[in-house]
Design a protein that fits this description.
The chain is an alpha/beta fold. The protein is about 30% helix and about 20% strand. It has 2 domains: about 180 residues, Alanine racemase (TIM Barrel, Alpha-Beta Barrel), CATH 3.20.20.10; about 120 residues, Lyase, Ornithine Decarboxylase, Chain A, domain 1. Bound molecules: pyridoxal-5'-phosphate (PLP).
């Protein structure tokens, strides 16, 4: 059971709302740090272990600073994320650059920072060479295709746009070695939000076997295997969180059986998790503006899909607590909506909740990763603020809410008025 307990009391939230109007996301620093420590402690069992936090999950300098202080590197996927990493003082191989359909300027920036560049396609060898020159260390992303099942979020590997085929992997190491590249890594990411620990152990086995095959066929020994992200979180109260220890022990066993046995020890093991690091420790706080009774009963909030896209996009479950009514009977059934002109702008459909009235404050759980970050501006909606609940119980603003002027900043009203 994943207990959906709040790290703050109603009074604390009401106090924050006085200063920072709803909606906003609030992150629990203490829980994030504790979780990061548990993660490193468990995976520290593995040879040369490194975790690179996936910036796209929660791209905020305060969150990145916490990751840095806890000993994580960063996994960047775009130019802006690389610049954010640079501005936060992440250096060289503390940055993993895993992207796909990559623009030339992104490769130039990654090379300039000395980041570990992970190529998503065999044609990117030449593309990178032309754009920035080949670095000393290069990594390739493997797509196992029909050899592996995927899951709903990421799709079946053979339908996924990412990575190189097995034959291309072998070829890629041969080509880059011939071009003078000296150091090599290997990467994969085949699932997203997966709660089955065995899946990650299977993935590690698959990668270790590939590392042996690459060595046997090309004489290239990879110095690390990056297992990607994708560890899931228990969005639903009846789900169980994964055990980091269980994954780490399983990966260690596979390492001994495959890497050590084939005399390829040592090979470093990397992860680039985002969701499991911050996801459960963020909350979207929103106020109820309207209650509407038609063919169903609707709760209309002041947040919308622009603040949290997952329920509308994938039908994802996010737990909802009505602040101050934690112990009230859940004897009403509501659709909890936002205000977009899109009928999938719903945080919950036919959810059992206590009776809700306008002015109630809803807490939408597990928004600490892929929450704010997926935001957009449809219907002229503005992005919300992000707050941080510090370890001492104080609340600080770590991103202000967008204003209408921010939204208009790229427009040209004067030019439009002069249009003939
Ligand atoms: C999204 C992504 C991650 C992080 O995934 P989580 O599910 O948040 O752990 C890591 N690596 C790559 C290449 C990704 O696309």
């Amino acid at each position: 059971m994943a207990e959906k307990i709040l790290p703050f009391r109603k009074e604390k939230v009401l106090e924050a709302i006085k200063k920072y109007p709803t909606p906003f996301h609030i992150y629990d620093e203490k829980a994030i740090r504790q979780n990061a420590r548990n993660f490193l402690k468990a995976f520290g069992l593995l040879e040369g272990f490194k975790q690179f936090f996936a910036v796209k999950a929660t791209p905020n300098p305060y969150i990145l600073k916490i990751m840095q202080q806890e000993g994580f590197g960063l996994d960047c996927s775009s130019f802006s994320e690389l610049v954010m990493a640079e501005r936060m003082g992440f250096k060289g191989e503390e940055i993993m650059f895993s992207s796909n359909d990559t623009p030339a300027e992104d490769f130039v920036k990654a090379k300039e920072l000395g980041a570990i560049i992970n190529l998503d396609d065999i044609s990117h060898i030449e593309f990178l060479e032309k754009a920035a020159g080949l670095p000393n260390l290069i990594c390739f992303r493997y797509n196992p295709g029909p050899a592996r099942r995927g899951n709903v979020l990421i799709g079946k590997p053979e339908d996924a746009k990412y990575g190189l085929t097995r034959e291309q992997m072998i070829e890629a190491y041969k080509i880059t070695k011939a071009k003078g590249v000296k150091r090599f890594g290997m990467h994969t990411m085949v699932v997203s939000n997966e709660l089955n620990e065995d899946y990650f152990i299977e993935t590690a086995k698959m990668m270790f076997e590939l590392a042996v095959e690459v060595y046997n066929k090309t004489g290239t020994k990879v110095e690390f295997v990056n297992l990607g992200g994708g560890i899931g979180i228990p969005y639903k109260p009846e789900q169980e969180p994964v055990s980091y220890e269980r994954i780490a022990k399983g990966v260690k066993k596979a390492y001994n059986e495959i890497i050590v046995k084939n005399n390829l020890h040592p090979i470093g093991i990397f992860t680039e998790c985002g969701r499991v690091i911050t996801g459960p420790y963020g909350y979207l706080i929103t106020k109820v503006n309207h209650i509407k009774h038609i063919y169903r009963d609707y709760v209309g909030t002041d947040a919308s899909m622009v603040n949290l896209m997952r329920p509308g996009m994938y039908g994802a479950y996010h737990h909802i607590t009505v602040l101050g009514k934690e112990n009230a009977p859940k004897n009403h059934v509501y659709d909890v909506t936002g205000s977009l002109c899109e009928n999938n702008d719903k945080f919950a459909i036919q959810r059992n909740l206590p009776e809700i009235v306008p002015g109630d404050i809803l807490v939408i759980h597990d928004t600490g990763a892929h929450g704010f970050a997926m935001g957009f501006n449809y219907n002229g909606k503005l992005r919300s603020a992000e707050l941080l609940l510090r370890e001492d119980g104080s609340v600080i603003q770590i991103r202000r809410a967008e204003s209408v002027n921010d939204y208009f900043a790229t427009l040209e009203f004067a030019g439009a008025k002069k249009l003939k």
